[in-house]
Each structure stands twice: as C-alpha cells, then as structure tokens.
Automatic annotation (TrEMBL):
Transmembrane domains' residue ranges: 26-45, 52-73
Organism: Salix koriyanagi
The protein's name in its UniProt record: PHOSPHATE TRANSPORTER
Keywords, sorted A to Z: Membrane, Transmembrane, Transmembrane helix
Domain of life: Eukaryota
Length: 81
C-alpha cells in the first residue's frame, strides 16, 4: 500500500509539472484524483472504486453548472440602467 501511495504522489507531481508547463488551468485536487484512479486501474479495472469516481465527476459537473449559472445571472447584460 505504501508503494502505491508513493507512486500516486509522484504521478501527481509529474502531471502538475506537465500541465503547468503547458499553461493549462488545472486544480491540484483534480490531478491527484486522476492519478489516484490511474494507479488504482493498474491492478485491474475492477479494483477501482467506481462509485467514488462517479461522485467526483458528479460534483465536478455540478460545480461547472454553478459557475455557468452564476455567470449568466450576474452578467452585466442583466443590469438595468
């Protein structure tokens, strides 16, 4: 278990370095979750906790929907002069 956690941390750092050098916006928690899923899939696709992955994707989708909604509600076009 300790080796897998170390490998997961190293892949997270490597992914953050690549994303940063490409000037792409990325959250470190998303990179960590993606690398954790990747390391989990090394043992086999059935060894990953897919319920947790679906919760993560659902939460991310809800966050994006909230940002789009709040940007549309608070846009300057809705201000009445």
């Amino acid at each position: 278990m300790t080796d897998e956690l170390l490998f997961d941390m190293l892949t997270s750092v490597a992914a953050m370095v690549v994303v940063t050098r490409m000037n792409l916006p990325a959250s470190s928690i998303h990179v960590f979750a993606g690398s954790l899923l990747g390391v989990g899939m090394v043992d086999g696709i059935r060894s990953s906790n897919w319920k947790l992955v679906l919760k993560f994707v659902g939460g991310f989708s809800c966050g994006i929907a909230y940002l789009i909604f709040s940007a549309s509600v608070h846009s300057p076009g809705d201000v009445v002069p």
